[in-house]
């Protein structure tokens, strides 16, 4: 490890967390986020004088520096995703990324049933227009499941989608409610 310090910022709306090696112990999405922020060693190409541009081990730490309008959290289950061995993941219906001062609202959850991430069947639950969540599975009619999502199909959580409170959009300091902008493209802030 060369000792060079730097900070980089990337605009992203996808955050990856891992539920691999959690055993069968129940964990929350918030706990998985904090675990994903832990310092770790990665191979990186470095421009420091010690590394000279070569691929070298570096200590890195990643975390959210700001809150996007929509945040998608991918829950990795590993290569052999047998349901019996999966840790239950409790989905936080309201989530505040540490130190950012914004409470995100749960918008949707995608569930995956299968032996691996690449093979199986996906279903989802999404918030309805009047609140509460609806569960959708292929050719079946959507099913209202209420407002409690924390303990729904916890061993199958694959993607979790959060949005700013009330669907608010923030862009370059401007705030606007998504629903009020749907009818007119002229009122949408330019990105």
Characterise the protein shown here.
By secondary structure, this protein is mainly beta. It has helices at residues 29-36, 178-181, and strands at residues 14-18, 27-28, 40-45, 55-60, 70-76, 89-90, 94-95, 104-116, 119-127, 133-136, 143-146, 157-163, 168-171, 174-177. A hairpin with a 6-residue loop joins strand 10 and strand 11. Mean pLDDT is 80; it is low at 177-191.
Topology record:
Layout: E1 14-18, E2 27-28, H1 29-36, E3 40-45, E4 55-60, E5 70-76, E6 89-90, E7 94-95, E8 104-116, E9 119-127, E10 133-136, E11 143-146, E12 157-163, E13 168-171, E14 174-177, H2 178-181
Parallel strand pairs: 1-5, 2-6
Antiparallel strand pairs: 3-4, 5-12, 7-8, 8-9, 8-12, 9-10, 10-11, 13-14
N to C succession of SSEs: EEHEEEEEEEEEEEEH
Strand content: 35-45%
**Which class of secondary structure composition applies to the elements?**
mainly beta
Q: Could you tell me the mean pLDDT? A: 80
Radius of gyration: 19 Å
Helix fraction bin: under 10%
For the biggest sheet, the summary is: 8 strands, mixed
Note the quaternary state here.
single chain
Regions with little confidence, pLDDT below 50 for 5+ residues: 177-191
Query: What's the end-to-end separation, in Å?
Result: 38 Å
Tell the overall outline.
Answer: globular
Tally of extended strands?
A: 14
Number of helices: 2
């Amino acid at each position: 490890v060369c000792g060079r310090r730097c900070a980089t910022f990337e605009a992203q709306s996808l955050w990856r967390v891992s539920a691999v090696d959690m055993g069968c112990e129940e964990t929350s999405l918030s706990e998985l986020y904090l675990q994903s922020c832990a310092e770790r060693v990665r191979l990186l190409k470095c421009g420091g004088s010690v590394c000279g541009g070569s691929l070298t081990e570096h200590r890195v730490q990643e975390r959210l520096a700001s809150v996007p309008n929509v945040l998608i959290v991918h829950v990795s289950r590993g290569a052999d995703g047998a349901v019996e061995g999966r840790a239950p993941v409790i989905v936080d219906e309201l989530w505040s990324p540490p130190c950012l001062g914004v409470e995100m609202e749960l918008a949707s959850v995608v569930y995956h049933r299968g032996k691996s991430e690449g093979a199986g069947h996906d279903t989802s639950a999404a918030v309805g227009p009047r609140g509460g969540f609806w569960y959708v599975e292929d050719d079946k009619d959507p099913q209202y499941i209420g407002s409690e999502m924390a303990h729904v199909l916890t061993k199958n959580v694959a993607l979790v989608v959060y949005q700013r409170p009330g669907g608010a959009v923030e862009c370059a300091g401007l705030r606007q409610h998504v629903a009020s902008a749907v009818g007119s493209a002229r009122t949408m802030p330019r990105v």
